[in-house]
Amino acid sequence: MEEENIHHANHGYPLHGGRICSVFLSKIVKGPMKTGDLVRPSIIFFFLLIGAFISLHWIDVVPLAISDISLQKTIPSFNSSVVINCSITCPIHSSKTIKLDESPSSELCPEYFRWIYQDLNPWKEKGITKEMVESAGSEAYMRIVVVNGKVYWKKLKRAFQTRDVFNIWGILQLLRLYPGKLPDLDIMFECGDRPVIQKRDYGGSNANNVTPMFHYCASDSTLDIVFPDWSFWGWPELHIKPWEALSKDLEEGNQRVKWIDRIPYAHWKGGPGSSLARKALLKCNLTDQQDWGALIYALNWGLVRQEMYKSTDLANQCTHRYKIYVEGRAWSVSEKYILACDSMSLLVTPHYYDFFSRSLLPSIHYWPIKENDICRSIKSAVNWGNKHPEKVQEIGKAGSKFIQEELKMKSVYDYMFHLLYQYGKLLKYKPTVPEGSVEVCLETMACSGTELEKTFKMNSMVSGPSDTSPCTMPPPYDPTTLQSFLERKANLTKQVERWEASENT
Ligand SMILES: *[C@@H]1O[C@H](CO)[C@@H](O)[C@H](O)[C@H]1NC(C)=O
Ligand SMILES: *[C@@H]1O[C@H](CO)[C@@H](O)[C@H](O)[C@H]1NC(C)=O
Ligand SMILES: *[C@@H]1O[C@H](CO)[C@@H](O)[C@H](O)[C@H]1NC(C)=O
Ligand SMILES: *[C@@H]1O[C@H](CO)[C@@H](O)[C@H](O)[C@H]1NC(C)=O
């Protein structure tokens, strides 16, 4: 990601332990932020950013609260019964063995876990060799190796903001939740926006010797293995809280304005420049001359930054009956926030999917919008919706229910668990600690970074080993069920088109 690197070079993001930046910025920021201050700014900033999260190619986000590396010796976690000793070395723990004989959980994993099998399909027959992993070459941002329950991080490239740090933090939590249950692992991770493993480079669908690359999203023409993105543990640069707390806020926020009292327009707010679809969307805005049923707001990042410091009085973000989701450079982490609003989500034809989005269905969880005719398509959706408020509320609720119930942190961890477990079983070699890597653990990671980073890490720390097993995997798709799932999705889209057509005649 060349652009990203330029941004780093020019603006010196205070990454994890960036001492020089921290010193510089501490002159701007009055003092370190206290935990109690977090709530409001994060909500406020969140409103400003809905729809804008990916394609962070705006140059100058300055994190709110930057402070130097903590000099504290220990920090209490959110749950104060757990205290982290910032000794900066990892404790010596006995090596863990895999427990295979445990009875499986009676709880069935959500349907979207079935895509794990699809994602690992290229290696199903022959497994994964070290050569395949190492063929990731310069595309990977980091290599994560787990040997006997210990995690090693080899940084290969500088990731944007703290993406890599928070992703590893998530993996450490997974190991804390399910200690001794994962096999040894050797993972290449790509932390940019777009997937990189092109199907066409490996001979299409009968792909051979594919590089296994973990990434936040993929598309129909790529073979990246999708993995939950960093935002589930927090996005400090944007003040987006860890998902566990944020999803609760959203649930509460939904109570504030009933659907029927919401503005009968489709709403989008975000950074407009990052995709053609976003540029096209700007033209759908309400003016004296036109009414496409859409209110579109382009974010001015300078202003956002200012408001971050000042404004305290923004209303709930779920104030419109329809919320538009449109991709930027690739998938956007905003999708879960938009869907969680109880408003009907209007999804402009997505080209990328993350780990859960392939199971979302048109007319059940969202309303599809044609990307090549965005304004007219939004207008049809809004017209139809305002005439069929019950159906629209049902779709809005189903989308939110999917997010609130199937995307709980427990499911996110279980997804990571099953994916990594199966991936580990495919490895044809015993992973070893690569040269140039460092061991990472709660102790080394929790105590560095800005105050906000540390707070988010503490707030997203799991309190200890789970007393239940991971959920039980649903069976893989056989070709027929997969085909019929895709057909159902296509049928549902046609159904929406029929509804819209009947409205226009
Ligand atoms: C933190 O760890 C260090 C080194 O292991 C140890 O000497 C020290 O007593 C610990 N501090 C606390 C408060 O537990
Ligand atoms: C869209 O219209 C609203 C209301 O008139 C306005 O506040 C907003 O700035 C417009 N958005 C863009 C991108 O021009
Ligand atoms: C804090 O952690 C303890 C021990 O893991 C647990 O029993 C307790 O329920 C947790 N409390 C909260 C408020 O999460
Ligand atoms: C999709 O629609 C076609 C034609 O209406 C129908 O024959 C088929 O059974 C439907 N498939 C699914 C999976 O719903």
From TrEMBL:
Q: Which domain of life is it from?
A: Eukaryota
Membrane-crossing residue ranges in chain numbering:
43-66
Question: Which positions fall inside the Glycosyl transferase CAP10 domain?
Answer: 181-430
Q: Name one Pfam family in it.
A: Glyco_transf_90
Which keywords describe this protein according to UniProt? Membrane, Transmembrane, Transmembrane helix
This one is known as Glycosyl transferase CAP10 domain-containing protein
The protein's organism comes out as: Camellia sinensis (Tea plant)
